[in-house]
Recover the amino acids of this structure.
């Protein structure tokens, strides 16, 4: 399964992530890497508003990240990708809650998942990975646990 993800549309749907975070895109990519590994899926994530010198496509582990230069949008790039694929677009699932993209995706015969539904699938995969990781011979270090707690905002609740 191939997923094309509208990154900035998905970030606010995942607990602990915010578009105001400096490293929001990096945090999302890390979660998508876990999702891709657990679900054995191919994931491409699109981010718009890339600053000059930072645009382009980067392979980040198992996730391909598209940083779209200002002046065009991630939406336009995703739509172009679906149109380019023609009949093979049926093998693609586009993740967005943007209604304009949804119309184009349906016209291109790709599958569609809302960001809300996909966020739940990502959280489920991360939970599954954590359970599998805890059953292995190498449990997570204290630093890794702290990082996950921080990522999901649970560290603030523990301080109360």
């Amino acid at each position: 399964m191939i997923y094309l993800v509208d990154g900035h549309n998905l970030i606010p749907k995942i607990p602990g992530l915010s578009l105001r975070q400096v490293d929001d895109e990096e945090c999302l990519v890390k979660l998508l890497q876990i999702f891709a590994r657990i679900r054995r899926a191919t994931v491409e994530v699109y981010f718009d508003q890339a600053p000059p010198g930072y645009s382009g496509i980067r392979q980040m582990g198992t996730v391909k990240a598209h940083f779209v230069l200002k002046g065009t949008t991630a939406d336009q790039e995703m739509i172009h990708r679906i149109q380019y694929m023609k009949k093979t677009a049926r093998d693609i699932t586009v993740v967005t809650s943007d209604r304009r993209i949804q119309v184009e995706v349906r016209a291109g015969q790709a599958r569609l998942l809302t960001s809300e539904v996909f966020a739940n699938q990502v959280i489920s995969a991360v939970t599954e990975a954590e359970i599998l990781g805890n059953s292995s011979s190498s449990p997570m270090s204290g630093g890794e646990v702290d990082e996950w707690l921080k990522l999901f905002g649970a560290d603030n609740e523990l301080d109360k």
